[in-house]
């Protein structure tokens, strides 16, 4: 008789433990699902204003081909330095980066007044400025023609050189030659304000 009670008690204890384990598994699964759902909602929230506290988050959303150098945010001006290897001669990829920056600045963010981009060569001796770009929120073409920006022909298209206020340096001329009717100019004035 005692053996029967002991077996019954053991069976009830085993059933209780199994029920408890199943309940814990159910609770754990729901906690993990809630965490995942929260993370997805958070990651899908679109950032619409740049600040010094979220500049890194914004930069990670842009798939760069070039290496990212220094980036700064100051009073409505966003400065980005791209480090490129001029030996690769992959200007079309650099221009895709520039398009992505401009698109992010003026289609995703609503507090950018000016974008300054420096294209610097990198090598063992350090880096030298190849080109600079200066795009402003007041540029009328941004509203209607940004999608038409031709990433592969920016330097060779006079209209886009003017729109993007491209300054090519002597280093660019050494590496790639100069487009027709384009003069080499120093690209330091726009950037000296931010100590870059």
What does this molecule look like?
There is one protein chain. The chain is α+β, with helices and mostly antiparallel strands and 196 residues long. Helices cover 45% and strands 20% of the residues. The protein contains 7 helices and 5 strands. It has helices at residues 2-44, 55-60, 91-108, 141-145, 158-163, 170-176, 189-192; strands at 67-74, 77-84, 114-123, 126-136, 167-168. Strands 1-2-3-4-5 form a 5-stranded mixed beta sheet. The longest helix has 43 residues, at 2-44. Residues 40-44 and 186-196 have low confidence and may be disordered.
Structural class: alpha+beta
**Helix amount, in percent?**
40-55%
Oligomer: single chain
What count of helical segments does DSSP give? 7
Strand content: 15-25%
Task: Give a count of the beta strands, DSSP E runs of length 2 or more.
Answer: 5
Element string (H = helix, E = strand) = HHEEHEEHHEHH
**Span between termini:** 90 Å
Mean pLDDT over the residues: 79
Characterize the largest beta sheet: strand count, sense, and whether it forms a barrel: 5 strands, mixed
Radius of gyration equals: 28 Å
């Amino acid at each position: 008789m005692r053996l029967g009670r002991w077996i019954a008690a053991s069976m009830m204890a085993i059933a209780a433990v199994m029920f408890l384990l199943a309940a814990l598994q159910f609770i754990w699964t729901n906690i993990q699902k809630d965490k995942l759902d929260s993370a997805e909602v958070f990651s899908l929230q679109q950032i619409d204003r740049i600040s010094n506290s979220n500049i890194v988050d914004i930069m990670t959303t842009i798939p760069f081909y070039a290496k990212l150098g220094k980036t700064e945010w100051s009073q409505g001006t966003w400065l980005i330095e791209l480090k490129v290897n001029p030996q690769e001669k992959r200007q079309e990829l650099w221009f895709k980066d520039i398009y992505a920056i401009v698109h992010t600045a003026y289609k995703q963010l609503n507090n950018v007044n000016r974008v300054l981009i420096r294209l610097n060569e990198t090598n063992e001796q350090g880096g030298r400025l190849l080109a600079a770009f200066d795009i402003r929120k007041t540029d009328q073409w941004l509203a209607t023609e940004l999608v038409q920006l031709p990433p592969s022909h920016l330097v060779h298209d006079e209209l886009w050189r003017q729109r993007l206020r491209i300054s090519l340096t002597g280093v660019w001329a050494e590496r790639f030659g100069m487009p027709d009717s384009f003069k080499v100019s120093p690209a330091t004035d726009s950037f000296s304000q931010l100590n870059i």
